[in-house]
Structures are given as C-alpha cells and as structure tokens.
Amino acid sequence: xxxxxxxxxxxxxxxxxxxRLARAGWxxxxxxxASFPRPKVCGEFISASALSLLIEADAAAAVMRQAGPQIxxxxxxxxxxxxxxxxxxxxxxxxxxxxxxxxxxxxxxxDEARRAGAGVWQPWTVESIAENxxxxxxxxxxxxxxVELSARFVIRAHGSWDxxxxxxxxxxxxxxxxxxxxxxxxxxxxxLPAGQMxxxxxxxxxxxxxxTDGGRVSTSCCIRRDALAVCxxxxxxxxxxxxxxxxxxxxxRGARIVLEGAVxxxxxxxxxxxxxxxxxxxxxxxxxxxxAMGEAEPSVAEGITIGIQSAWVLTELxxxxxxxxxxxxxxxxxxxxxxxxxxxxxxxxxxxxVVGQLTMNTRAAQTAAAIIACAPxxxxxGAAWSGKKGKLAAA
Length: 395
Fold this sequence. Notes:
Blueprint lengths: L1 E7 L3 H12 L4 E4 L13 E2 L1 H9 L4 H6 L6 E6 L2 E6 L11 E2 L2 H14 L3 E3 L3 E8 L2 E7 L4 E11 L23 E9 L7 E7 L2 E7 L4 E9 H10 L5 H12 L1 H6 L4 E12 L2 E2 L8 E2 L5 E2 L7 H18 L5 H35 L1 H13 L2 H12 L7
Parallel strand pairs: 1-2, 1-10, 2-7, 4-12, 10-17
Antiparallel strand pairs: 3-6, 4-5, 8-9, 9-10, 11-14, 11-15, 12-13, 13-14, 16-18
Helix pairs in contact: 1-4, 1-8, 2-8, 5-6, 8-9
C-alpha cells in the first residue's frame, strides 16, 4: 500500500492533483469518502482560466461536452436595480467560463485521473494521518474494513466543512451569528439572459444565477446564520431553503424577473457553515489545496477555479523538485508553495470577502448598485480582481 502520493478528496482540486501526478508517472492513490455521482452545494461556475488548465491537461472533453453555455456577462442585482457588464475574453484555450453541476464535474475529473493511472479508494474515509520516517501514513476505513496507505506526499483536498473527520487547519467549529450557510437548487425556464451570471443582494446574504448543464439554471445562496433565523421566523412551516428564497424574491426585483415562468426542479441542498479565508499550512508534513488551504467567499464564484489552480501550482512544484532527501524536499516545497499561494490567491480571497460583506449589507449594496449603474466598468473591474481575467503565472 505504498504510493508516491495520496490525495484525500476527489473534488476538482483533488482530481486535478491526482491527474497531473499520475500523468507524470507517479503512483497515486485517491481516497474519496462519497460515492459518485453526488449532488453538492456549489455555484457550479468554472472560469475560463481553470477550463484552460483542464484543456492543457487533456482532461476537459467530458466537462466541455456537458457544461452550460459560455458566460460572457456579469450582473449585480440589488433592490430594484439590475446592472450588467461584459466580461473580457480570456487569452487562453477557453475564452469564457462555463458552469457544470458537481455531480457531473467531479465524476468526469475523477474518471480522467483513473484513466491516467491513479488508484481510487471509494467510498473510503481517512481517519488519521501520521508521519513515520520518510513516509506519511494514512489510516482509511470503509463500511467493513480499514487499511493503512503510505506515501512520500499527502495532499489534503477534503474541503473545509465536510472533511470526513480530519480537521482543516485553522477552521473553527464554534457556532457564530456571522457563519455563512449555503443553499442550492435548480430551475428550468425563466428569463435569465443567455451567458449572464448575476450576483443578487438581499438582507444578510447573497445569491447567484447561472445557466448550467441540461438547460438548467443553477441558483445558490449564502446567508448569515442570524439572518437565516429571521427568514425562518418570517416563514414558519417551510424548509430553510424556501424561507431564504422567499426573502430573496421579496427584496430583489431581479430575482423575480429572472424566475418569471420558471419551474423549480428538485429540492434545496444545504451545507455549511462555510469558513471563508486563508488557512495556515498543515503542520503534519502534508499539503493542502482547494478549500482546505483557503476559501473564497462564494460571492465571486471562484471556488472551483481556485481549487483547480491551487492543485496546479502545488503539483508543478512537486514535479519540478530535485531534492533527494524526502524531509528536506517536503519542507522546500512547503515554503515555495506557501509563497506561490499567497502570490496567486491571497488578494483574490480577501477581495471576495469585501464583495460578500458589501452585498449582505442592504444599504451598502444599493449604494454600490447605484454607483455601478453610472459606471458599469466597475463591475467588470471587480470581476477581474476576483480572478476571471488574469492568467495563472508559472509557479
């Protein structure tokens, strides 16, 4: 049960890590606790920069075949205002981003990693991680048995809130009024313009629309815990997702317009609490990618993209390493990765927090919408700051 690398979690960050290392000839094991296909709370948007990396890795065929239309316009809906701006074309293999449900995206990327030679342990859950000399040992368990897997490198791609028992470094488990809780569902029909992805403001939260696979419109919401309590008191007897959506429709004209004639498909999914922000690097010799390393607020729809990009940056450093001593190699890669992560992602994650806090404040959101209505270029600039325009520089 020895490998060169063990990847914990097979979401976009984990599957990308496994794919790149396996393609380079490494022996790789992916340990994933969920059975696929799995529905997952997520905004579903994949930016052009991330799609371009998947195309470069020859892993995008299934994604591109299933994904929704190109997203070439962003919007901001607050109160009665609906402001939009064109996105610039991305100078890469993909010109614009697209959206794909996680039940399809995760399965497609995991299949690519498996075809590249990665071994897949699914559904298995990693219960503990321990250093043992040059190796790191992971004890994993499924319903009936347990096993020990060891490797020179272990990559945590288990997210930040549903970690299977492994605590993400720097993530508090204490309940707070400001905690963000997330909901997602789909609609069919309606009046969302083709290629537009708007951000919707409502008291204590924000939401978003995007055309995704199969002709569906994906709708995701984030709301503060205290604001959710207000919604539930105002709408007793309905689900939490329906209570939140009632508040969205009451306070945002754009939501009512977009959903005119739409049919709700399926139920609401819920997740959280989310813990946006930068995380400290693991102190146990492992590495972290995706939300296990840092999480952007969903307000900027960059979660999947940062997951894929962070995996790309880390694996590039691992593949370039020429240090023969394993302990020194891990330490050197950790230093280089921490610096590269800050350079590529820290400002984007902090900007997402600014956007999220502004959008959840009713007065601030409506003021921002009024300003953007006079200067739509600001909306385009904000999208660029979130990472939708810039290339991922070499590590």
